[in-house]
């Protein structure tokens, strides 16, 4: 009996250390199944520029563009999460100053002991700077492509394409 209790306590302690390590290194936020914010860690708050007090009790939509929030895609996004479907990808969101924020994130539903979805957790990394750099490089390449003369030949010397 005591051995089982000790193993359970050790497992719980290991679980708590794991969650703390994750929370210390990744931006995290928790929602209820309606999208209402329950909690967020300091890294997430730093990304979005809000205080915990300013967002707890508010809807996830505060981080989103109005057009997206009013779209069927946004409703489907939350319907899928309520049904237990995970979401992973790159998501464009807005900061408290309504500036663009790009997050590489996973949203995953958390089930109760009875198998009901009770909340949704999001773990994210801010990739805004990488996205901006990628877009700038692409813009430069597009500008070069438009401004430089290029000709493509086949093996016999016939012109295939030219700008």
TrEMBL record:
Domain PAS residue range list: 11-58
Cited Pfam families: PAS_9
NCBIfam families xref list: sensory_box
Name assigned to this protein: PAS domain-containing protein
Species the sequence originates in: Vibrio parahaemolyticus
Upper classification of the organism: Bacteria, Pseudomonadati, Pseudomonadota, Gammaproteobacteria, Vibrionales
